[in-house]
Amino acid sequence: MGDSIDSVDGGVPDQSPHEDGGTARSHRVVQILGAVLVGVVLPGVVVGSLVGSLGVSAMFVGLLLGVAGSKIGGYHRMLLLAPAMGVAAGIGAFTAYDWSWAVLLAVTGLLAGAGIGFGWLPALLMVPFAATFVTPVSTGTDAAIYGVVVGLATLYGVVIARRFGAAAAVDGDHREPMIAVGVAVVFAAVLGGAASIGVALGWTEPYWVAEPVLVLVLYILMGKRDRIAGKAIGTACGIAAVVPIALLDPPAGVLATLGVVFFGLALTQAKGSYAVMYGLYTFSLVLLLSTPGQVGFEAEERGLQILVGIGLLVVGLVILHAFATRLAKSHPQPELAG
């Protein structure tokens, strides 16, 4: 057996561990670049040629949520949820951003929150994400196109996530029915309330109020509750850092350059302090979204929206904690004998 192996090797010298590691890394980079080209760029070109820019934005939303949902909830569960993703996205695009949209977010929050009763909350959380971050449309036809593309792109994201090792199912927390009801009601109230505040105040992009609610709930599910404080501190510091820029009122080119530079700096902090990373991200976001003379207004509106969303989530968590504590006292669980 050993002779046959030697004959196959043909006397080729063994590679060193460093060479093996370098080859593996190079192969991985090629795989990732190939996946980006085949999984993102090529479908984007095809969808864009068929249905235009609306389809491209829908494809990227569905693809991102399909991959993220498969990673945290399992690709099999996201496969089953793809139709719901399309429906939520289509209705969200058609109703954005009026009171019907706020009702939709409350309904999707109720659905996702109820998932904690049977371990599906991580996967179901993608449904309100799909309803929140939408491209507004004015006709039912465009809404249907948007929803169908999001649903199909979600399936495509599931395929990509499975290719890169996503599990078939990732079970979340299983809570007793009363706790599940409490989570569902509170989540619906917080998410619907966040959307309602944005609509009532006439903000052109009210999804920024709901954004911290969804993102921080995702972090809580990942066991990173400390991100709540980090996001609040980072937002406040990032907005404060914008004040000198607003006073100087530089031209648009300078704002865009600074925004890109600080966004790059934020990416370097991905494994460091979340407060620092989000502070840099908020600073860059405001600069990239601002026009000359509007930096202060953009900072005030964006910072207020994010901080209001964080505040609503904190209030919801306090209410939920008090409810769970009271429920535990009134319905104590019996201890196992022995």
Structural class category: mainly alpha
Number of helices: 14
| Low-confidence regions | 1-15, 334-338
Major β-sheet annotation: none
SSE topology string: HHHHHHHHHHHHHH
What is the terminal-to-terminal distance? Answer: 57 Å
Helix share bin: over 70%
Counted beta strands? 0
Mean pLDDT: 85
Strand content: under 5%
Overall geometry comes to globular
What Rg do the Cα atoms give?
Answer: 23 Å
Q: What order do the helices and strands come in, and which of them pair?
A:
Blueprint: H1 2-9, H2 17-51, H3 53-73, H4 75-95, H5 99-114, H6 121-124, H7 126-132, H8 140-163, H9 177-200, H10 207-221, H11 227-248, H12 252-268, H13 274-289, H14 295-330
Helix pairs in contact: 2-3, 3-4, 3-8, 4-5, 4-7, 4-8, 5-7, 5-9, 9-10, 9-14, 10-14, 11-13, 11-14, 12-13, 13-14
What tags apply to this protein structure?
338 residues; mainly alpha; 14 helices; 79% helix; disordered N terminus; disordered C terminus
Brief rundown of the structure:
By secondary structure, the protein is mainly α. The chain has helices at 2-9, 17-51, 53-73, 75-95, 99-114, 121-124, 126-132, 140-163, 177-200, 207-221, 227-248, 252-268, 274-289, 295-330.
